[in-house]
Automatic annotation (TrEMBL):
The lineage of its organism: Eukaryota, Viridiplantae, Streptophyta, Embryophyta, Tracheophyta. It comes from the Eukaryota. Belongs to the LEA type SMP family. Residues 1-17 have a biased composition (Basic and acidic residues). InterPro entries: LEA_SMP, LEA_SMP_dom. The keyword Repeat applies. This is Late embryogenesis abundant protein D-34-like. It comes from Cicer arietinum (Chickpea). Residues 16-70, 133-189, 197-255 form the SMP domain. Keywords: Repeat. Residues 1-20 are annotated as: Disordered.
Length: 260
């Protein structure tokens, strides 16, 4: 595979860049989507999901890459340097009756959704028991952005999630919120990223660390998102982060209840 090279293309047609169609930032946002990038995502989706998802990330990338190739902006075997170096991934987190699928490009989360999975015999009809909980959503966050250093916005979101899961405004000593706040404070004074405490360190096994738990609702998701964005200088939530995972769980719970 060849890394992207400058090419002559029609002057009246701009390249379709990652930032035009996907929620990415930095250098990747300015890169034209190349055919081999799309092929890598198609392969990753097929490996995990069994097929490319209609209207999904791979489908969007393929459409953009085809247009860029037809315009002479990229070649058929071109690959973007970011995807070549850091790759694309599609991962799944299994919870009872559900799986949370997260798609990333160059380390940036570009898509996340929840799918129902077959329930073990004898458990049908117990929607309330199989609903995704806040604790399970936090565990999913450990998988999606587990390598991200804990920041104040993450700690605030985790605290909001714990309060809603337990129904208690008192922070449990040694609990998730306490651990997250300690991690954020430590990381603020830590110079090297490799020495910082990561989200995965705090949220792995989150369900067992909560004294109580509950099914995630739209109201829970809104409260967690507000806490995360309010404490982020950019006033945004991390893709695949705490707020995004609670929101994904709430959406699935709501859709299941609407079906039943």
């Amino acid at each position: 595979m060849n890394q992207e090279q400058p090419r002559r293309h029609q002057a009246d047609q701009d390249p379709i860049k990652y930032g035009d169609v996907l929620p990415v930032s930095g250098d990747l946002a300015q890169k034209p989507i190349a055919p081999e990038d799309a092929a890598m995502m198609q392969s990753a989706e097929s490996r995990v999901l069994g097929q490319t998802q209609p209207g999904g990330v791979a489908s969007v990338m393929q459409s953009a890459a085809t247009r860029n190739e037809q315009a002479g902006i990229v070649g058929h075997r071109d690959v973007t340097d970011v995807t070549c170096d850091r790759g694309v991934t599609v991962t799944e987190t299994q919870v009872p009756g559900r799986r949370i699928v997260t798609e990333s490009i160059g380390g940036q989360v570009v898509g996340q959704f929840v799918e129902p999975t077959p329930v073990q015999g004898g458990q049908t009809g117990v929607v309330g028991e199989s609903a995704l909980t806040i604790g399970e959503a936090l565990e999913a966050t450990a998988h999606t952005v587990g390598d991200k250093p804990v920041e104040q916005s993450d700690a605030s979101a985790i605290q909001a999630a714990e309060v809603r899961a337990t129904g208690c405004n008192v922070i449990t000593p040694g609990g998730l919120a306490s651990m997250a706040q300690s991690a954020a404070s430590y990381n603020a004074d830590c110079q090297r990223d490799e020495d910082k405490i990561k989200i995965g360190d705090v949220l792995s096994g989150a369900t067992a660390k909560l004294p109580a738990d509950k099914a995630a609702t739209r109201q829970d998701a809104a409260g967690v998102a507000s806490a995360e964005m309010r404490n982020n200088p950019d006033a945004t939530a991390t893709p695949g982060g705490v707020a995004a995972s609670v929101a994904a769980a709430a959406r699935l719970n709501e859709s299941v209840n609407n079906v039943m």
